[in-house]
Design brief:
By secondary structure, this protein is α+β, with helices and mostly antiparallel strands. Helix content is 37%, strand content 19%.
């Protein structure tokens, strides 16, 4: 099956606003914000994770921020902006009150783990946000998305100067298709709750597995690379199905943009 290359979010189809009536309501708009949080948040984590710890004190010129400083700054900005959207409060410890220059010298693993935690906090906020019915709320969301994109751009330049390739410029991981009998994929058929108001519908046709979002967009084939892991050819996305101790399918995990989204099976 061939699809327009412009459909950049087929499995996680928030970017299909022009092609899906549902995307014109507040649920569809929120899905767009969540998708771009995944894109730039995931790229930032991948970028920080790929830079050697020994280069976290690097900055192109003396007046610019070090890589370590950028990491702690993005973490703090995520909490500040997402906290402004909700009554949900971030977990705090004494370390959070330390000066930015002190945090910038924390070990790489600490900085990356804290950045991941701040993005998970924002994920929770966005999932609970409800209808997008306020210009102020829209402005805060735009500022949050812009901040992620701006700092990913900044970090990409640093990586280029260090002779590294930013995550968004890397080739896709290659996959090998395996053959599975129809009996192996039939248990995966069903509806999976990705977030409130958004389900992923998994179906079979002609002995193959397909997936589509309830918000609209294309139906695409899931190609098996193991008994539980599948990938999409049209975009860089993978799906892993989960089972309980008895072998019953309990959900799936969507791997896209460097993020992992769990979706329990609803039926």
């Amino acid at each position: 099956m061939r699809l327009n290359a412009g459909l950049v979010s087929i499995v996680f189809p928030a970017a299909l606003a022009a092609q899906s009536p549902a995307a014109h309501d507040s649920t569809g708009v929120m899905a767009v914000f969540e998708t771009f949080t995944d894109i730039f948040g995931g790229r930032l984590v991948d970028a920080f994770d790929s830079i050697p710890a020994s280069r976290y004190d690097y900055r192109p010129t003396p007046v610019q921020q070090t890589i370590g400083y950028i990491a702690q700054h993005v973490e703090q900005a995520n909490y500040e902006q997402c906290s402004g959207l909700t009554d949900l409060k971030r977990p705090r410890t004494a370390k959070d009150s330390l000066a930015p220059d002190v945090k910038a010298r924390w070990p790489k693993d600490t900085l990356v783990a804290r950045l991941r935690a701040s993005l998970r906090f924002c994920d929770t906020v966005l999932e609970r946000l409800g209808p997008l019915d306020s210009p102020a709320r829209s402005g805060t969301l735009l500022a949050f998305e812009t901040d992620l994109a701006e700092h990913y751009s900044q970090l990409s330049i640093y990586m280029r100067l260090l002779g590294m390739v930013p995550p968004s410029a890397l080739p896709r991981r290659q996959h090998t298709v395996v053959e599975l009998p129809a009996s192996a994929i039939t248990p995966y058929v069903g509806s999976y709750q990705l977030r409130p108001g958004v389900q992923l519908e998994v179906t079979t046709q002609g002995g193959a597995l397909f997936i589509r979002s309830s918000t609209g967009g294309a139906t695409v084939e899931l190609w098996p690379e193991s008994a539980t892991s599948f990938f999409v050819k049209e975009v860089d996305a993978q799906v892993t199905f989960t089972r309980d101790a008895s072998g019953t399918v309990t959900g799936l995990v969507l791997h896209q943009y460097g993020r992992d989204r769990s979706a329990p099976k609803a039926r």
